[in-house]
């Protein structure tokens, strides 16, 4: 975006009618990593296959000197530097990506955590041990230069070492880290988790929110707000009330960010309900996907481009970048040019916040602060009422994203539609039974290799045929918590399917992946903006959680075909009868 200032971008956004609660300057001012002519020319020249590579490269000298040299070079070439000279400029002034990080073996890693003993199947036990080993491979620590010369790096300095997802993602990410931490705690690595938590809390203290990931170019957006849930996981394993006491205000501050900047009012049947959405009030292409965003915008009238870029950033904030969830109502349902993320009230976001409000109430009660405990209890009750009124659909037995513009629910299938079951944010005791019927009606239980992300094949990575580990957890744990034996049995079978898919692919490729294609026997996933990545933090975490929960029953044997919904009763009847016998 050469020649444009961010102030102008904000004015454009406001002129286009994008709402903004506060006309704040953008959090990242870097004219190298976030906006400006240098970023534009380098990314549009496509010097690298992946745009993320350039914005992850540290500077060799001070940014002022780099910009001065670049501006002179650009003027000499009428603001269109030939590719070869641009490449030479980058090689001279930037270092290879990854230079600012060093491998780190967590000090609390040990050979044989207790949960391994709960796994009956010998092959699964060996595999779990190999996944436990991966934490060492995914461990990273920042070099001292990131602290002494922060202006030379896109990486945001964090004091404590951390676990990364893997592949192209060599920094930490917000919502990924929730499932990573769950796995680390099973691996008895509570000190590593505490350090990662402290990094996030420090970010809230500095910026008022947790950014999408640990880079300056992610500062304009967050990701699904799971910080309070992370703290709860850590407390459950450690009972470290002192750490909670020291940081409770930062947890409150992070939730305030969502209240102040991501709240939307929905009018329904004469009542107004406050819920939350993903919303990023900044235009400009995403630096890490700059050329793709710029080329996509070229397909639109110039006046619509800033709004498109803001919606793409909101889609990235959702964690589902990208999905048919955000494309409804556009002229082409498979094209990202019609993305409308901020126009939807998402089920999962509001379920996460509902659970966070419940946990904050419990935290404050634990610390003896009754007034704050009451405040969050009231907030949760209000959100629960809004979830029921706006997102719940009694006839279908699920919650649905609400379309603010068209004033209707998006009734397509997504696993996120059952997140309130996982979060415990519902009042109807029969909700698990209805959720099962919803899964059956959509034939989700017929998929042998995992729960699909959607039933729509758009070519986006958060759509069919991809399946993602966190979405398996949302459905499996949601059903497993229910007092209904049938729900618990279906949860186990879903866990068995996912474990076998992950195990089979690992057996073939000696790797874990961020997503899986479940359409053809279970393979590494595809689609979206980049190649499927190995690692992989949250996939490892979810597998360890399932092995911990069901380790005495899970098997590594041949995949069993999932029965048609009307045949489920034949499988489930024995367990139902067993549960009612008078032992």
Explain what the structure shows.
By secondary structure, the protein is mainly alpha-helical. It has three domains: 1-99 and 285-317, no CATH class; 100-261, no CATH class; 429-583, no CATH class. It is built from 21 helices and 13 strands. Strand 7 and strand 8 (398-399) form a beta hairpin. Helix 8 (174-186) runs antiparallel to helix 9 and helix 11 (241-261) packs antiparallel against helix 14 (347-366). The termini are far apart.
Topology record:
Layout: H1 6-15, H2 37-45, H3 51-55, H4 63-76, H5 83-93, E1 101-103, H6 122-137, E2 139-142, H7 145-148, E3 162-163, H8 174-186, H9 190-207, H10 227-238, H11 241-261, E4 263-268, E5 271-276, H12 290-297, H13 305-317, E6 344-345, H14 347-366, H15 370-391, E7 392-393, E8 398-399, E9 402-403, E10 408-409, H16 419-423, H17 431-441, E11 466-468, H18 469-480, H19 485-509, E12 515-517, E13 523-524, H20 537-550, H21 568-580
Antiparallel strand pairs: 1-2, 2-3, 4-5, 6-9, 7-8, 9-10, 11-12, 12-13
Helix pairs in contact: 6-20, 8-9, 8-10, 8-20, 9-10, 9-11, 10-11, 10-14, 11-14, 14-15, 18-19, 18-20, 19-20, 19-21
């Amino acid at each position: 975006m050469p020649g444009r200032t961010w102030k102008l971008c904000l004015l454009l956004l406001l002129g286009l009618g994008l709402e903004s609660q506060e006309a704040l300057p953008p959090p990242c001012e870097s004219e190298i990593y976030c906006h400006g002519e240098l970023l534009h020319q380098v990314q549009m020249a496509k010097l690298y296959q992946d745009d993320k590579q350039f914005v992850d490269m540290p500077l060799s000298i001070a940014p002022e000197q780099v910009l001065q040299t670049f501006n002179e070079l650009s003027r000499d070439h009428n603001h269109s530097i030939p590719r070869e000279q641009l490449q030479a400029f980058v090689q001279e002034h930037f270092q290879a990506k990854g230079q600012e990080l060093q491998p780190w073996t967590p000090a609390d890693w040990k050979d044989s955590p207790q949960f391994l003993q709960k796994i009956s199947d010998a092959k699964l036990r060996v595999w779990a041990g190999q996944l436990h080993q991966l934490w060492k491979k995914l461990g990273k620590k920042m070099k001292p230069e990131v602290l002494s010369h922060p202006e030379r790096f896109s990486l945001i300095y964090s004091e404590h070492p951390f676990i990364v997802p893997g592949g192209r993602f060599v920094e930490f990410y917000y919502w990924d880290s929730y499932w990573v931490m769950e796995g680390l705690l099973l691996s008895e690595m509570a000190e590593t988790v505490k350090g990662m938590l402290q990094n996030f809390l420090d970010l809230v203290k500095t910026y008022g929110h947790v950014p999408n990931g640990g880079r300056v170019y992610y500062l304009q957006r967050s990701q699904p707000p799971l910080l309070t849930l992370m703290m709860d996981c850590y407390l459950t394993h450690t009972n470290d009330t002192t750490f909670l006491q020291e940081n409770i205000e930062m947890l409150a501050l992070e939730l305030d960010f969502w209240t102040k900047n991501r709240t939307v009012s929905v009018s329904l049947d004469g009542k107004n309900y406050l819920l939350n959405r993903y919303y990023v009030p900044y235009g400009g292409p995403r630096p890490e996907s700059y050329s793709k965003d710029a080329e996509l915008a070229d397909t639109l009238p110039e006046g619509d481009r800033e709004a498109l870029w803001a919606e793409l950033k909101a889609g990235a904030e959702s964690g589902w970048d990208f999905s048919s969830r955000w494309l409804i109502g556009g002229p082409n349902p498979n094209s990202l040019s019609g993305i409308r993320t901020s126009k939807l009230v998402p089920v999962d976001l509001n379920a996460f916040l509902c659970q966070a409000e419940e946990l904050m109430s419990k935290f404050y009660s634990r610390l003896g602060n009754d007034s704050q405990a009451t405040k969050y209890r009231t907030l949760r009750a209000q959100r629960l009422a809004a979830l029921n009124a706006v997102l719940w659909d009694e006839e279908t037995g699920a919650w649905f994203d609400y379309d603010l513009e068209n004033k209707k629910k998006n009734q397509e299938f997504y696993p996120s539609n059952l997140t309130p079951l996982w979060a415990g944010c519902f009042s109807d005791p029969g909700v698990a039974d209805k959720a099962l019927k919803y899964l059956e009606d959509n034939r989700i239980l017929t998929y042998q290799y995992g729960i699909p992300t959607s039933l729509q094949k758009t070519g986006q990575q958060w759509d069919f045929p991809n399946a993602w580990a966190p979405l398996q957890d949302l459905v499996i744990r949601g059903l497993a918590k229910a007092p209904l034996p049938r729900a618990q049995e279906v949860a186990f079978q879903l866990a068995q399917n996912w474990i076998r898919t992950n195990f089979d692919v690992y057996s073939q490729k000696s790797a874990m992946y961020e997503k899986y294609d479940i359409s053809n026997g279970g393979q590494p996933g595809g689609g979206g903006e980049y190649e499927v990545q190995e690692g992989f933090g949250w996939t490892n975490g979810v597998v360890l959680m399932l092995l911990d929960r069901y380790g005495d029953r899970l098997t590594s044997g041949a995949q069993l075909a999932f029965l048609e919904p009307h045949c489920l009763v034949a499988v489930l009847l024995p367990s139902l009868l067993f549960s009612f016998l008078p032992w």
